[in-house]
Specification:
Layout lengths: L1 H42 L1
C-alpha cells in the first residue's frame, strides 16, 4: 500500500513539474516579446 502511494506521489510531482516548466517557458516568451516591443518604442 505504501509503495503504491509513493509511486502515485512521484507521478504527481513529475506531471506538475513539467506543467510548471511549460508555463514558465510561456512567460519567458511573453517577456521576450514585451522587451522587443518596448525596445522598438524607445528607439523611435
Amino acid at each position: 500500500m505504501g509503495l503504491f502511494i509513493g509511486i502515485a506521489l512521484l507521478l504527481i510531482v513529475l506531471i506538475s513539474s513539467s506543467t510548471i516548466e511549460k508555463r514558465l517557458k510561456n512567460i519567458e516568451r511573453q517577456n521576450d516579446r514585451l522587451i522587443e516591443i518596448l525596445e522598438k518604442i524607445s528607439n523611435k
